[in-house]
Amino acid sequence: MRTLLDKNIGPLFYRVRKSELSLIPAVFNPPIELEMNVLERRVYDAIENRIRSYAQQDYLKNIDFVRRLQKGRMVRLRQSVSNTSLLSTALQHYHETLITDKSIADIVAGYGALEVPAKLEYLLAKVTELVSRGEKVIVWTNFIGTLKLLQCHLLEAGIKAKLIFGQTPVERSTLLETETREEIIEEFKSKESNLKVLILNPAACAESISLHTCCHHAIYYDLSYSLAQYLQSLDRIHRVGGSETTQANYYFLQYARTIDKDIYSNLRSKAERMYALIEKDYEIYSLDMFEDDGDTEAYQRVFG
Q1: What global pTM score does this model have?
Q2: Residue 161 carries which DSSP code?
Q3: Over the stretch 1-19, which tens digit does the pLDDT of each residue have?
Q4: What is the mean pLDDT of residues 97-125?
Q5: Do residue 99 and residue 209 come from a single domain?
Q6: How many domains, in total, are found in the chain?
Q7: Is the residue at 258 inside a domain?
Q8: What is the pLDDT at residue 139?
Q9: What are the two backbone dihedrals, phi and then psi, of residue 96, each rounded to the nearest 5 degrees?
Q10: How far from the centroid of its chain's Cα atoms is residue 221's Cα?
Q11: What is the largest CA-CA distance in the chain?
């Protein structure tokens, strides 16, 4: 088969691999493992324990219903390692009660006034360090509530930061003075601008913007199991037209003894398999090949 392909397709086939683009290899810093602060740890452990308890009864339910429950539970765990306050928001098609202890419910309801997440404390210090060196930074998070939380704290620290996510308009269509995505990006790219940080949502921005000419540092505040979004987000600061001479740097925040480690390990494993595949000639592939039902698969892996 290989001989046949070489003879009939070889003369017509040419693909430029990323490894052939003469880009400086990006630096994937080892995950930064942090201990949760006291209250967010109490909430996370309570939710994880409740999920383990519910998981023992799942075999009694309809399989489609169980899968919806599993997806919802994994989103709740991911919210717990992103922003405890998110647990007070509703999830579409998921109506299970994971918080039954009133003291835990009270923490969730008032969390914003009780404690600053350990990830956020680290993020503020890291961004301050990078900005003081004249660098610009993008921060990735999957939840709108977390986007707004990070922006609020960065602004309070005197660091100008703006958001781009699904609600950011892509073009001006009314007379309202609403800043568009394009305007924010242009401001961020400008050398004269004091806009130092963009906070982005992978679902809305993973493949739609190019920031590699002005920004070389990306911090992942949290991750999802979506390989496509993860790989596309990496290329926002590592691509032709700038990365031939300037190194891209990635930082990953993780909470110890949480779902963070499983998400990161799963993404890296799938990414390595995909890169090994696309280095081969004539392979037909798609990112969808690696997009299994991430949350459900992870649920089975974590909770058995």
Answers
A1: 0.87
A2: E
A3: 556 655 665 555 556 566 6
A4: 96
A5: no
A6: 2
A7: yes
A8: 98
A9: -95, 140
A10: 7
A11: 71
Please name the residue ranges forming H helices in 179-293: 181-189, 202-205, 227-234, 259-278
DSSP β-ladder status, 27-28 and 197-200: unpaired
Q: Which long-range contacts (CB under 8 A, 24 or more apart) does 150-154 make?
A: 150/120, 150/123, 150/199, 150/221, 151/199, 153/116, 153/120, 153/124, 154/124, 154/127, 154/197, 154/199
- SS3 state of residue 221: coil
Instruction: Name 163's bridge partners.
Output: 199
Measured between alpha carbons, how far apart are the two ends of the chain, in Å?
41
Residues 49 and 135 in one domain: no
- Residue 1 belongs to some domain of the structure: no
- Residue 153 is assigned to a structural domain of this protein: yes
Residues 43 and 136 in one domain: no
Same-domain check for residues 242 and 229: yes
Do 137 and 29 belong to one domain? yes
Q: Which domain holds residue 67?
A: 38-114
Per-residue pLDDT tens for 43-91? 999 999 999 988 887 666 677 888 888 899 999 999 999 999 999 999 9
